[in-house]
Amino acid sequence: MADHKFSRRAFLRGVGVSMALPWLESLPVWGEDTSRRSSEAPVRLAVLFSGNGFHSKEWWARGEGNGMELGGVVSPLNDFRGKMLFVQGLYNAEALKGNIHSSQTGNLLSGAPLASGGLIRSGTSMDQFVAREYGGSTKVPSLVLGCEKSNPSVHKNYSMLYSSHISWTSPTTPTPLEIYPALAFDRLFKDNVQRGDRSVLDAILGDAAALRRQISVGDQQKLDEYLESVRDVEQRIDNAGKKGQLQGWRPTLTEPNLPRPADGIPQDIGEHMRLMCDILVLGFQTDTTRVCSLKLNNDHSSLRFPNLGVDYMIHHLLSHSDTADWLKVNRFFLEQVAYIARRLDAVQEGDRTLLDNTMLLFCSSMLTGSHDATQLPVVLLGGGGGRIRGGRVLDYRGKPDRQMCRLFLSMLDKMDLHPEQFGDATQPLNEV
Predict the structure, then answer these.
(1) H or E stretch covering 328
(2) pLDDT by residue (tens digit) across 239-260?
(3) Are the CB atoms for 327 and 79 separated by under 8 Å?
(4) Out of 10, 117, 253, 353, which residue is the most buried by the measure of CB atoms under 10 Å away?
(5) Which pTM was predicted?
(6) Residues with Cβ within 8 Å of residue 80, at least 6 apart in sequence
(7) CB 210 within 8 A of CB 204
(8) What is the DSSP letter of 426?
């Protein structure tokens, strides 16, 4: 198909709706950047975070390739050992000054000094640095998702906003966090971010039918699978909303006889996280965004996990032990990472998969719940567009110049961004 009216930057459109297309061999151009090969997909960046660290005896990896051995926390990633870097020993020097959750989280993606005493000042986070450079290429410059509300209080002279946000648009501005899947979904596909009665897919079916007649048989199947995945997420959001699990409290009377209380934490945390994971994948699959952060919970988190049978203690308190339940919760978080990796790896983009074209960083602000931030738990999944060789353990413990920001410089390099300095680092990690 040498000639067609659809270009890579075309959208399926309907009234109030625009949906970017997935990678299709019949539409070989990705965006307007002619410096890249026309069939080469862009590199995506995803950052996933969970607070309070992990089980002290079960966060480890050794060996290499598909024979790599993984500790109990990381074992959900077994299927992706060949596409994984397990990184040990990196840290943020500025995070050690307060030795509390807020002071260790607020600069996780920037390495910047943090203001205390009622002031709020951190640094622009790595994901937003990328969004600033590449955000104009996509409908949504960056998608910033969360599964736990921001905490505006103060703890030991540091704002708890530091514990609640890993993404910072500027040193004084945490990037607005979307915790409602319905609104995150709308931001990807609707022109006005408001919940409507009409399905996104129903709105673009005419445009989709026209496109289907002009693409290859293989692309028709890929388009059908993509539209079905969008429909699935849409239906799950609607069903969850009807159960009252994602949109907070709903009155049972036609006219409530008491004031509506503030929205609370979603009741079904498992479904909440899974929906956010699916929305991240859809954002990348459609090239609606190339940058996404997903904060699975806050540092100093108050989440409980009745879906795991662990409802007797909040996440933060549970983190101060090495119990079997703490390991169970840890594994639950890693299962979300594995789920995203599996979804990304199932999407073919030319000779590579979407996971091969992504850098999926998973980290926490401390190694264990005892506030050990002298080394950070870090896993990097994906190929960075064919520029990262996985299946390795990189150990920087005991070595000089082990700034976390050196990893960020390496990741920025894979996206063809080459700042002379980021945070407290001036040199990338050559091994990455």
Answers:
(1) helix 324-345
(2) 765 665 544 433 332 344 434 3
(3) no
(4) 353
(5) 0.86
(6) 338, 341, 345, 355, 381, 390
(7) no
(8) S
